[in-house]
Amino acid sequence: MSRARTQSATAAAVTLLLALPALAQAPASQPAPPPRAAPAAASAPGTPGAPGAAAAPPAAAQNPPPAPPSRPPAGAVPPAAAPASGATAPAQPQAADGAPPPKLDANAFDAALKDYFDNKPERAARELYAFIEATPPTDENYAWAQYFLARSLIDLNLRHAGAVYLAKVAHERSNPQVLPKTLEALKVLTLVPHDEVLIDEQIFGSLDLGFLPDSVSDYANYQQGLVDLRVGNERWAKTHFVKLEEESVEASRAKFALLVTRLKNAKAVDDQMIDDFLELSKDEKLTLEARNEARLAVARLRYERKDYEGALKAYSMVQLPSLDPGRATLYLEEAWTRYNLGQLRATIGLLTTLDAPSFRDEFLPDKYILRALVYRDLCQYLPAKRAAKELNRRFSDSLEAIRDRDDLTQDFRLRRAAASHGSTKRAGRFLESLNVENELLGRFAGGFGERLYKHLTKIYDLERAEGERIYRQRLKEAVREEADKLLRADEQVRLMEYEVGLKLYERVKRGAKLAQTEKETPLTSVNLNFKFDGEYWNDELRSYRVSIPSRCIEEGAQ
Amino acid sequence: MKRTLLLLVCLAPLLVHAQGEELENPGTVSAVQDRTYRMASELWIGIGFAPLDAFYKGITGQIGYVYHFNDSFAWQVGRGLLSYNIPTGLRNQLETQFGVNPTAFPQLNWMVGSDVVWTPIYGKTSWLNSSVGHFEVYGSLGGSVVNERLGADVASGVGTTVFRPAIRVGIGARIFSSKTISWRIDFTNDFVIYQGIEQNIFDVQFALALNFGGTE
């Protein structure tokens, strides 16, 4: 009992201690806002702290876009009059040169919005930035100005700069009416290369979910669940995922993320996991890419369990858009599956596919080993030896760089392979988009004016430096993985060369005869046979068949 | 004997080269695909032009039904053609200035017939390197019954018509638009027989074909 009481007392004390700073920040204890310098502005409705603010909220707060938010009814005092006061008491970030921002006209905000809705984003951006500079953050239009500045910048394809301003609105949360639109705009930005730390982690990953509108609450819950999954806390992730609407896209994506995480951590694969992935692969709410990922997961799991027929079935379920060449890994994995099923000619067919120009730059050391294995199994020893050697020939520079312990990020092939997938690819794409946007920014130097241009240049310079750092860091890790892959393949190639060398000079016994060749599947009336002459057609990539004789000698020969 | 040896010596390098090539690059590669478009019951409707006769030009409308036994052979069960004839300047000139009897100008009225169709070519082609189109080329052979209207009777208003048998040969191509819809272009010639080959009716036609019951 006494123990329990002690705990309560401790808890109460802790609560009190925690509450103290909060109480200190509570509005009641705050001093009254400083009086506006301009008396006219202080009396304007909508000015924070003014008596009329609550009674007559500005149009900006009531009528969010597409109607210009601060456009008041005729005859009413415009809420944008507030900036006039702000102009005299700027508390905002100074321009890069430290010069005070210029004074603004009373209708500056309205004029800027007009320009925005008149489809003049360049001009609107300049005016909105001037407004933000000259206005205190407590101004009711401040958040709207940031929002529309972001929208103007996004319209000009300066997405990152737009995202920075949207993120400011989301962080500051000074105007609850701007927030839903801001989050929706940020959600759209996640579809293109973006700053993952800024948007995914710092905004969606840390939002207070209680007040969010339905349109973004699912997405925020999903992102927060993902953050938890990444740090290995599935239980916390689930508390976010259970809040998702059952029929929402995010719910399907969350299921996928959960399954992938479980798969990563699982020591053994069970049927349930395969069935879950299979079910997910039929979920129309997922994108085609995600459904294909689920199918690939089914195929890989079945392969791991040596259910090659099942794996093949799952690979055939992968749907590609018309004339899409697909992914090299898909063909290579299918080729391994067919090899394990003893379908040597079909395997070579798929390896022929991997020679297509679409996959010429792919980093697939396994391809050469598999080709050598198939030729070896068909007792075609010379081609087997040649296929094995091809790996060394093709990756000789990379192998030399690995052996010499050079900086592997400088190796062209390894760098390209490392940057072609995963988080490195995302970081690379974001960096690329930053560079493009930075170049684009130069075109608006005149239109934006010196202050906004300097400010944005600074934003882009900082972000590019950070983007470059993240990209290099990820590249360094990814390139090591690719180097390991190459070294393993090189080792197997040496073994293969040795084995084939032995076979090549093996004596043929007297009376030996060629073994029975595997029967090729005959063509039916519905089949068309286009002889391959080195010209690849994307619609044929999954259809190559190879007719190749086996040169193996029967065991029973004397 | 010496010549044989010399020949063998000359041929030996060629044989070695061929064998070496086979040893280094064994096998042949083919793309084996299921036929994307297969025809079954086809109903088509077309519009054409009969340009050959010097005394009239025919604008033809034609309709037909084809049953496809397989991907190569089909029977054009029936087809019917109606021709709207436009006299040429030459005919007008002959009639008005040189007093040529209008009976000298038999003209096509309508025609029905049936043919066998052989499709030896099925292929695909690339359109602007962005899409793949499928097509087939076929030939046809059949018979027709031609209904001709004599110019003299038209002039007098009596309207005598005559029937003539004809042998039709044709060649055409089809471009597939979907499993159901395809577009045809046909070049046909009917050899009208009456005491020998009386005349040729050449027709160029564009048609829309609807396919029913084709397999996937």
Helix content of chain B: 10-25%
User: Helix count of chain A?
Assistant: 25
Residue runs with pLDDT of under 50 for 5 or more positions of chain A = 1-96
Count, helices of chain B = 3
Strand content of chain A: under 5%
Backbone CA Rg of chain B: 26 Å
Task: Describe the strand arrangement of the main beta sheet of chain B, using strand numbers.
Answer: 2-3-4-5-6-7-8-9
- The number of domains of chain B is 1
Q: List how many beta strands of chain A DSSP finds.
A: 2
- Contiguous runs where pLDDT drops below 50 for at least 5 residues of chain B: none
Instruction: Assign an overall shape of chain A.
Output: elongated
Quaternary form: heterodimer
Most extensive chain contact?
A: A-B, 31 and 23 residues
Strand content of chain B: over 45%
Helix-strand pattern of chain B, N to C? HEEEEHEEHEEE
Largest beta-sheet details of chain B:
8 strands, antiparallel, barrel
As a whole number of angstroms, the C-alpha radius of gyration of chain A is: 32 Å
Secondary structure tally: strands of chain B: 9
CATH topology of chain B: Porin
Could you characterize what this model shows?
The complex is a heterodimer of chains A (558) and B (216). With 558 residues, chain A is mainly α. Chain A is built from 25 helices and 2 strands. Among the domains of chain A are: 126 residues; 137 residues, no CATH class. With 216 residues, chain B is of the alpha+beta class. Chain B has a single domain, classed as Porin (Beta Barrel). Chain B is elongated. Helix content of chain B is 18%, strand content 60%. Classes of the chains: A mainly alpha (558), B alpha+beta (216). Chains A and B meet through helix 19, helix 21, strand 1 and strand 2 of A and strand 1 and strand 5 of B. Strand 2 of chain A pairs antiparallel with strand 1 of chain B, so a sheet runs across the interface.
